[in-house]
């Protein structure tokens, strides 16, 4: 019997209670509403000229009997529609939009029409493989797609109060509960791609029906146990994969995080998105059930992921083979995968840990992924996306010239046949307001410094928080606290790991604060209009890797605030590998309003190795030619590849 411990979760703030008005993030949220979601709707309907077709909406029409034709796309194509609907739900929660709501309602009608009478819903098996449901959970993402649709149903119901999609996913979840479980006649299995675990907890929180929590826990508890379900299932079809190959003697169970029970796992392994979604579901179930053993596993896996296998940009999953983790400290920059969806999964897991235990290390990682890989996964026009997020790119190596870089793109793409990342970015940015604060008892925690207004209740008193800043360019943040009446509570402000010092003023007077797990705690009786000014020192930092990270030996990266910086060819010319940043070089931050809608760049006097002095020689016994002075300009990593194709590197040799 697992140890049961008391776990009281902090609450996130409902999206209608958080109004974002921020110099950095308002642009992206407006972009999601005005460009990204409409553009993705066109892409899902195959109306974007030159982009890879999706087929996702048409699949639902065919499954509903409204059109003739065959299923198109990947087996998980339904999930793109689900994530789009979820993003719409978040947008509608923040701000009504009757036209967008009408479009979504029409799509929901299609989803409902495609649902089987028993509650089953999946266009691939309805159209292409009728009668073969639940026969290939390893490969075919049935429960993964179900999970995304459940999340969409919950989000849309919370935003609009409309139950149609919620009722669809309740019927589906009820049917799934009759198929899976430990009872005689049920499948003791789980999906090859985790997702439904965290979705079922959301459904439980929304409906109060504990069977959904129990089902989520069943899926988590079953994974990796013996006899191994995935092996048995593969054997039942002679180990023939949906993807056209035959598994050999040893199936790579670690790829699915099914190599051992989750409570026994020690390291982040396998497909990175699967891992991050699994970890999120584990945290949810541990919190809701008080499972101390499961929580201990969550902490252990989180620490391994972030302390030994996470890129400086918040990217995770270092190898293209399997879109997966490899081993501790293996973080190559040029062949990296770092799928956008994986960093989004990291954000999900971080938020869940923050609800359980407000420790700044979780918010630091969340912020790192959000400001670098996640927002960098989308172009400034909202119509181009990265699936892979490299830290070093040479376009000459891409495009088939060197096969090991086939997954790396030097520019963002309009769409993908496997289009999981664009709608994932949309749903995260549309729900950004729910990541800024958590509240518990008589304390509110500010995890992110995002301008706007938040309404919450602390100790029975309604409180409004107004936050203002020029973050991430400046570390000065101002809060105005507006309790409905005088009230005593704690305002806890995160002290980021990148800031060596911080000062706080309350109502214009210096305040001596205590810290708890990386948060400055301000406890007092608050009055209407009290102000808090947080000044975070924001130096330019030279970051160096653990010596065990081979790819960064002798190299340095620059970071200012939450932003990691990079060199780009547009500013520094070609052959970035020839550039050196001397240890004694002065680093200067400059506001460049003319660049990329206004950014802060970092400039330094660097050196460039003289390649021309080598002539045509490939090798030489002569000494290295003297390097020549060159002005270096670093831009925020998220902003690269918005000015055409060119080289980029985060890590630069230190001279």
TrEMBL record:
Residue ranges occupied by any Non-reducing end beta-L-arabinofuranosidase-like GH127 catalytic domain in the UniProt entry: 17-433
Key words of the record: Hydrolase
Segments forming domain Non-reducing end beta-L-arabinofuranosidase-like GH127 middle: 444-538
Hydrolase in keyword set: yes
Every Non-reducing end beta-L-arabinofuranosidase-like GH127 C-terminal domain range: 541-653
Keyword Mitochondrion attached: no
Domain of life of the source: Bacteria
Ranges annotated as spanning the membrane: none
Molecular function per GO: hydrolase activity
Protein's name according to its UniProt entry: Glycoside hydrolase family 127 protein
Protein species of origin: Paenibacillus thailandensis
Lineage: Bacteria, Bacillati, Bacillota, Bacilli, Bacillales
């Amino acid at each position: 019997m697992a140890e049961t411990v008391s776990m009281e979760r902090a609450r996130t703030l409902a999206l209608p209670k958080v109004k974002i008005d921020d110099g950095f993030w308002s642009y992206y949220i407006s972009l999601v509403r005005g460009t990204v979601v409409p553009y993705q709707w066109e892409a899902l309907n195959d109306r974007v000229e030159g982009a890879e077709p999706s087929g996702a909406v048409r699949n639902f029409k065919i499954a509903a009997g409204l059109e003739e034709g065959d299923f198109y796309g990947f087996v998980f194509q339904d999930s793109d529609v689900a994530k789009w609907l979820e993003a719409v739900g978040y947008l509608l929660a923040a701000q009504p939009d009757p036209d967008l709501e009408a479009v979504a309602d029409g799509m929901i009608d299609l989803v409902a029409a495609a649902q089987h009478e028993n509650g089953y819903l999946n266009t691939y098996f309805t159209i292409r493989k009728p009668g073969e449901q639940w026969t290939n959970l390893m490969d075919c993402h049935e429960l993964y797609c179900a999970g995304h649709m459940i999340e969409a149903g919950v989000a849309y119901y919370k935003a609009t109060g409309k139950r149609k999609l919620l009722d669809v996913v309740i019927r589906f979840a009820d049917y799934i509960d009759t198929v899976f479980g430990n009872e005689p006649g049920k499948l003791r299995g789980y999906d090859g791609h985790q997702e439904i675990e965290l979705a079922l907890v959301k459904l439980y929180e929304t409906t109060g029906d504990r069977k959904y929590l129990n089902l989520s826990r069943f899926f988590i508890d079953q994974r990796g146990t013996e006899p191994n379900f995935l092996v048995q299932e593969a054997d039942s079809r002679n180990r023939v994969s949906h993807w056209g190959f035959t598994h050999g003697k040893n199936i790579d169970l670690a790829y699915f995080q099914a190599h051992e029970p989750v409570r026994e796992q020690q390291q982040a392994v396998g497909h990175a998105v699967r891992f991050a979604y699994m970890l999120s579901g584990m945290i949810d179930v541990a919190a809701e059930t008080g499972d101390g053993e499961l929580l201990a596993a969550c902490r252990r896996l989180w620490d391994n992921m972030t302390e030994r296998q996470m890129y400086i940009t918040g990217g995770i999953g270092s190898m293209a083979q399997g879109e997966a983790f490899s081993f501790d400290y293996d973080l190559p920059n040029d062949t990296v995968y770092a799928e956008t969806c994986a960093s989004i999964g990291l954000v999900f897991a971080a938020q869940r840990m923050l609800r359980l235990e407000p420790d700044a290390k979780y918010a630091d990682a969340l912020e790192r992924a959000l400001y670098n890989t996640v927002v960098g996964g989308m172009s400034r026009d909202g119509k181009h996306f990265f699936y892979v997020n490299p830290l070093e790119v040479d376009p000459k190596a891409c495009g088939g010239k060197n096969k090991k870089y086939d997954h790396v793109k030097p520019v963002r793409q309009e769409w993908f046949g496997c289009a999981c990342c664009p709608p994932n970015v949309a749903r995260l940015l549309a729900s950004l307001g729910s990541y800024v604060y958590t509240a518990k008892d008589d304390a509110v925690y500010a995890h992110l410094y995002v301008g706007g207004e938040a309404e919450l209740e602390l100790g029975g008193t309604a409180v409004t928080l107004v936050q203002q800043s020029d973050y991430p360019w400046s570390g000065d943040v101002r809060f105005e606290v507006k309790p409905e009446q005088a009230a005593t509570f704690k305002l806890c402000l995160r002290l980021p790991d990148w800031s060596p010092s911080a000062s706080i003023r309350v109502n214009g007077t210096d305040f001596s604060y205590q810290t708890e797990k990386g948060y400055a705690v301000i406890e007092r009786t608050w009055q209407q209009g009290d102000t808090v000014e947080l000044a975070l020192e924001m130096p330019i930092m030279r970051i160096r890797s653990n010596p065990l990270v081979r790819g960064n030996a002798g190299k340095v990266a620059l970071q200012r605030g939450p932003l990691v910086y990079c060199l780009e060819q547009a500013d520094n010319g070609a052959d970035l590998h020839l550039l050196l940043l001397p240890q004694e070089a002065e680093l200067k931050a400059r506001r460049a309003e003319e660049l990329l809608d206004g950014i802060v760049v970092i400039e330094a006097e660097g050196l460039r190795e003289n390649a021309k002095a080598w002539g045509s020689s490939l090798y030489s016994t002569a000494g290295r030619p003297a390097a020549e002075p060159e002005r270096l300009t670093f831009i925020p990593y998220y902003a690269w590849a918005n000015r055409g194709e060119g080289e980029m590197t985060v890590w630069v040799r230190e001279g």
